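Handout, page 2. Input:
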Amino acid sequence: KWLILLLGIFLVGGSLALFFLLGREPNSHIAGVEFRKPDSVLIGEPFVVSISVTNPSNQILQEARLILNLPVGISLVGQQETLRTVERMIGDMVPGSVTPNTFNLIALGDNLSLARLSATLEYRVPNSKLEYSEKSEVDVALSQPAISLDMEGPSSVLSSESFNILLRYKNNSAQTFDGLRLKATYPAGFKVGKTEPAPQTLNTWNLEN
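Output:
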């Protein structure tokens, strides 16, 4: 009996020590984190994700901050592709408050079909030194590239034989892309004849919207 009692005290004491050592209480469910996103996005086309953080409790949530984690292949528009974590300070959240947060993202990976986004709201409550957190995840389906390029030509040719190659590009999105350029590269020993239309610079075409 003494052994069982001492073991129980040790487990309880260890749990309390670990709790106070970490100083954080996850899964508190005091706050709410909700995603709003498109059903699917095109690769290379910017899209908007909205994250609403709410305080349904009757106490102030202090020093709240929102952390958005991005998977490889999803980037924040205007930032480096390697940026994986985006933090946004919310501040104090009064009872009943709803704070929307908008993020402009873009999918750049060519081998993705599904991207998982996760958001964590970290905060404190009055008269407590603990840091609480609430986490939410959502999957974004990725479809075809926003701009597609097809090449049509013969499957084989004889040495020194002339042949034609047809390039087709298509905007699969509903928006206009500015500043698109098409650049062709050729293997060694390949001689380029007449092209229609003619490139603006060497082997480079400025594409129309």
